[in-house]
Amino acid sequence: MSTNLDFLLRPRSVAVIGASRSVSTVGGSILRNLLANAFAGPVFPVNSHATEVQSVRAFRSITDVPEPVDLAIVAIPAAGVVAAAKECASRGVKAMVVITAGFAEASAEGARAQAELVEIARSNGIRLVGPNCFGVVNSDPAVRLAATFGRCELRPGNVSFCSQSGALGLALLDKARELGIGVRQFVSIGNRADVSTNDLIEYWGSDAGTQTILLYAESFGRTDRFLEIASRVSREKAIVAVKSGRSAAGAKAAMSHTGALAGGDAAMDALLKQAGVIRTDTLEELFQTAQLVSTQPLPLGRRVAVVTNGGGPAIMAADACAARGLELSALRPETTAALREVLPENAAVGNPIDMIAGATARSFDAVLPLLAADPNVDAIVGLFTPTGLTEPTDVAVALARTKAYARKPVLTCIMGTDPVRSARDVLRNAGVPTYDFPESSAVALGSAVRLSEWRARRAGVAASAARPRKGPPAANKTRWLEPQEVAALFAAHAIPTALSATVKSAAEAASEASRIGFAVALKIVSPTMSHKTEVGGVRVGLEDAGEVTHAFGEIVAALERIDRRREVTAFQVQAMAPKGVELIAGVTVDPVVGSLIGFGLGGVTAELWRDVAFRVHPILRVDAEEMLDEIRGAPLLRGFRGAPAVDRAALVSVLLGLNDMVSLHPEIVELDINPLIAHAGGAVAVDGRVRVSTPPA
Ligand SMILES: Nc1ncnc2c1ncn2[C@@H]1O[C@H](COP(=O)(O)OP(=O)(O)O)[C@@H](O)[C@H]1O
Ligand SMILES: [Mg+2]
After folding, report:
1. How confident is the model at residue 225, as a pLDDT?
2. Is the CB of 623 under 6 A from ligand 1?
3. In the Cβ-directed half-sphere of 614, how many Cα atoms lie within 13 Å?
4. Ligand 1 centroid – CA 603 distance (Å)
5. Over the chain, what is the mean pLDDT?
6. How far is the CA of 605 from the centre of ligand 2 (A)?
7. Is the CB of 382 under 6 A from ligand 1?
8. What is the pLDDT, as a whole number, of residue 249?
9. Which residues, in sequence order, are bridge partners of residue 216?
């Protein structure tokens, strides 16, 4: 399937099927927008009852249009859409935008009509947007396509925007205009019968005029393709997405720790992270981030300098920076000395740099170049609270000047309402992001730093090859592997496992323990009891045969007391792992995204801390490394409070081993290594469980 969407977004001619005289109808409104924005080619209204519409000669059918038509906008009642599509096909139309609703989103009959529409489009080489959408926009001065029925004034820029919700899309276009964000192209994709979010990301990835891609998405279609395309495009352009449905409950009841920990939308989060897509929590943050990444260079690091004429806003900014993982730069001594020279004596030349209330536009002009030149500063936040001493617009001009000399991002906040509006306009027109409150600059900067770090980690790393989607085979029966099978599987993928033996009796346990070497752990093997500790089924640190025999008796007695002895099929004697950090590594299958690999803090309290990073299978080495750093407990791995650092390479190797295992064995539906005990000299699995789907009998 061709993803060339030029006929859709850069058509040479447009027909509006259902164009009406009344601008209060959808078709009439679209025609008015096309004309009012002076589309750069001919526009052909199609109307079965009128010979002219809004001063333009109209045609009864698209087949009557005497010239070639690249793009047809369809805004007629649903019943006529399929017939119109057939006519478009016979007229040689190259792209269609079906605004009309009442298809797959409405009924089974609608779904059938939609399938027919897709069939007509595909068999005639027509790219189709919609149905059930709000239209498309291209503000490129060479095109000027405003094929939508919302109020639409084009404001050219480098941000392209795809929205799964038409209504939200139009509201956001409006907001973009208010914030001075120039939108290059906009597509409301509606039911995504043909053109998808993935197609648009790919198209915009090679569109020189698009620098930033914004997405409002409820789902991401084929997620393997999304990962492949988005992670390629993210290396060059910022993709910012607000993905709704954050609170969607996990679709299945998980039987493993990893599965339980992957609830909510961990899968979607992993997918976006892996693809380098900046995910924002809210629409507001989407815009705050877009303002920054579409106008400024990405920060090279996390160190921020805050300059202000008032203490309070600077403290708020500094706190918000810390909350987003940013830090205040330690300025170079040369910078501090120079600040001393240019600022009054009672100004604070640390960071935040508080120029105090007497500061004027000149103060900003003196200080900003010093910060721009300091290599310890990765980003500058300029805050100004209007005083009677200087004009806000003059301060804005000083801040805007940074665009000419600063090779690092500058973000601003001018506190206030109406009186500072023109100051904000100065900044927006200059391409310097400005926010109503200081905290917003930290939000945007935090997002930009994440992207910058994502890119840095992938510099020189080949993008992953196309990712074959390997869902588990269709089967409704599953089983847990036996301990020996688990051990063999782990051994085959270089996952170190504590030496162990399966036994049936106390005597056998004692003799195997002597063979393995003391100290040992003794635990139950049971297909039904997944948390062995809970039923008193795990004893650790047994020092000799006597202790093993004794522990065996105690475990059996404990099980008999709760009447669950029958559920135990065997016992396991296992070498004790060296002291270390208890981690979890595992696999679970998400119904939408496929296999996920998880890594985090483990042990019997894993579900309590819920500190686990996920990635979509297959992962790269860099993904595995990121996972190690991403968990809140990461400092434990680096050696916390005098403990030695753990062997990172061993952990990365376990994660890559799991990755290969999943590639080779798509029948794995759940896998837990909990704990994986990491120490200075390696990592060892002491509790591994694997559930596989079994082919239908
Ligand atoms: N071989 C071992 N070496 C060191 N500690 C162990 C060993 N086996 C178990 N443990 C400890 O006992 C805890 C529970 O054991 P585990 O086999 O994970 O049982 P379960 O998770 O089913 O309760 C582990 O989290 C770990 O702290
Ligand atoms: Mg365990």
Report:
1. 92
2. no
3. 26
4. 7
5. 92
6. 10
7. no
8. 47
9. 163, 242
| Ordered domains of the chain (ranges, CATH) | 3-218 (3.40.50.720), 302-413 (3.40.50.261), 499-575 (3.30.1490.20), 581-694 (3.30.470.20)
**Ligand positioned closest to the Cα atom of 526:** 1
> What number does the ligand 1 atom closest to the CA of 574 have?
1
484 is written with which tokens? 């020996």
Mean pLDDT of 329-338: 97
pTM for this entry? 0.91
Q: How far is the CA of 671 from the centre of ligand 2 (A)?
A: 12
More confident residue, 418 or 192: 192
Tokens 């909990």 identify what position? 674
Nearest atom of ligand 1 to the alpha carbon of 534: 23
351-362 burial: b if 16+ Cβ within 10 Å, else e: bbbbbbeebbbe
User: Which tops the pLDDT comparison, 232 or 150?
Assistant: 232
pLDDT at position 171 is: 84
Note residues around ion ligand 2 (Cβ under 5 angstroms): 674, 687
Dihedral Cα 3, 225, 209, 14, nearest 10 deg = 30
Question: What are the start-end ranges of the E strands in 424-580?
Answer: 434-435, 477-480, 500-503, 520-525, 538-542, 570-575
What's the pLDDT tens digit per position in 504-530?
999 999 999 999 999 999 999 998 888
Q: Identify which of 572, 604, 605, 677 to mutate to test ligand 1's pocket (most ligand atoms within 8 A of the CB).
A: 604
